[in-house]
Each structure stands twice: as C-alpha cells, then as structure tokens.
C-alpha cells in the first residue's frame, strides 16, 4: 500500500512538472515552481526526485515506458499479427500527438538537461540497452510474418530495429511538422514494411 501511494505521488509530481516544463521549458522551470504547483514543500519534492534533471529524465522515461508497456500488451493479444503491428503504429503515433508540445520542448532543451546529468555515460548506455531490448521484442514478435530470406540475412534485432526506426522517424516528423496526418503516416509505415520486410 505504501509503495502504491509513493508511486501515485511520483506520478502526480511528474504530471505537474510536465505541464510546467511544457509551458516554461526546462531551463526556466525551477524546483520551487514544481513544489508550488504540486502544493508540497520543496524538501518533500526532493524526497521523490533528487533534482530537476531526474524529474525531466523521469518524464522522458515514463513516455518511453508507456509506449513499451502498451505495445507489449498488444503483442500478447491473440490476434492477427499484421493487425497488431498496425495497432502498435497507431498507439505510438497517438501518444506522440498527445504529448507533442512536451516532446517539442524536450527536443529543444534536451541538450541543457543532458549537460546537468550526473552520469551521462550511464544515461547513454541505458538508452542504448532500452533501444536494443525494444528492437529484440519487436523482432521476436514479427519473425513469423517477416520474409524468411530477410530474417536469415539480417536477424531478429535488425528486423525489430526497422519498425522501431520507422516509428522514430514518425516521432521526429510529427514534432517538426503538423502537415502530415496520423493516417497518412501510418499508411506510409505499413507500405514500407509490406514492400520491404513483411511476407
């Protein structure tokens, strides 16, 4: 029960800080502003997050975890795999659109946050491991519907990386421009997969 309360409080703080970071940017948001928005004392805030940087990185991590968790839930369903891939693409594009303003700010000010990171090498290694794990899971899920010659030549991880990279491209496109619709992006990704690696 205590763990659930702590998790709920951390989530509440993340939600409050996300709106402040989105509105003011990383550099212009202070721990004082976050404590005030949360209606808690600054020492209480530091009990949950050691620094503004850990809060900011926590938001990015939460966004990535949400996509991963929901994608895993979809992959565990007993449905047509082509349909599930479409749903994973839909899910990713929807979450990107929902968080677009925060993600734009994050891309704009990420370099400032990285400079304040206590252990940049650890952060980079964590991100690389996360990406490899996502690619491996996607590759394992897709292997039955990938062209055998593609799977044999490139392997499971690279197959998963292909879908992951297409989604990352959509992430950057949606942050940079509002001109391309969700459905058009999804259609393009599916067409690329069907013409490239899917059987």
Which strand-content bin applies to the residues? under 5%
Mean pLDDT: 86
The main sheet comes to:
none
Large-scale geometry? elongated
* Oligomerization: single chain
Total of domains: 2
Estimated structural class: mainly alpha
Number of helices: 9
Distance between the termini: 48 Å
Roughly what percent helix? over 70%
Radius of gyration: 19 Å
Spans of 5+ residues with little confidence (pLDDT < 50)?
none
How many strands appear in the DSSP assignment? 0
How do the SSEs run, as a string of H and E? Answer: HHHHHHHHH
Description:
- The protein is mainly alpha-helical.
- The protein folds into 2 domains: 1-49, Orthogonal Bundle (Arc Repressor Mutant, subunit A); 64-196, no CATH class.
- The chain is built from 9 helices and no strands.
- It has helices spanning 2-24, 31-38, 42-48, 52-75, 81-98, 100-115, 120-142, 148-176, 182-196.
SSE layout:
Elements: H1 2-24, H2 31-38, H3 42-48, H4 52-75, H5 81-98, H6 100-115, H7 120-142, H8 148-176, H9 182-196
Helix pairs in contact: 1-2, 1-4, 1-6, 4-5, 4-6, 5-8, 5-9, 7-8
Brief synopsis:
The chain is mostly helical.
Task: Write a concise keyword list for the protein shown above.
about 200 residues, mainly alpha, Arc Repressor Mutant, subunit A, 9 helices
